[in-house]
Amino acid sequence: MRPTPAPLPTPATRATSGRIARSRGDSASHRARSSWPVVVCALFALVALSPGHARSQPERAERPAAAPEPGQRLVLELAPGVEVELAWIPPGVFEMGSPGGEDGREPDEGPRHAVRISRGFWMMTTEVRQDQWIALMESNPSRFKDDARQPVQTVGWYEAVEFANRLTEAVAQRHPDLGLRPHYRIDDAERFHDGHVRSAAVRRVPEHRGFRLPTEAEWEYACRAGTSGPFHTGETILSDEANFKASLGYRDSEGGVFRERTEPVASFAPNAWGLHDMHGNVWEWCWDWYDPHWYEPTNGPTNERGERVDPQGPGDGNERVLRGGSWYDGPWYVRSAHRYRLGPVFRYYNNGFRLALDPE
Ligand SMILES: [Ca+2]
Question: ∠ CA(283), CA(296), CA(344), 5° rounding?
Answer without folding.
Answer: 30
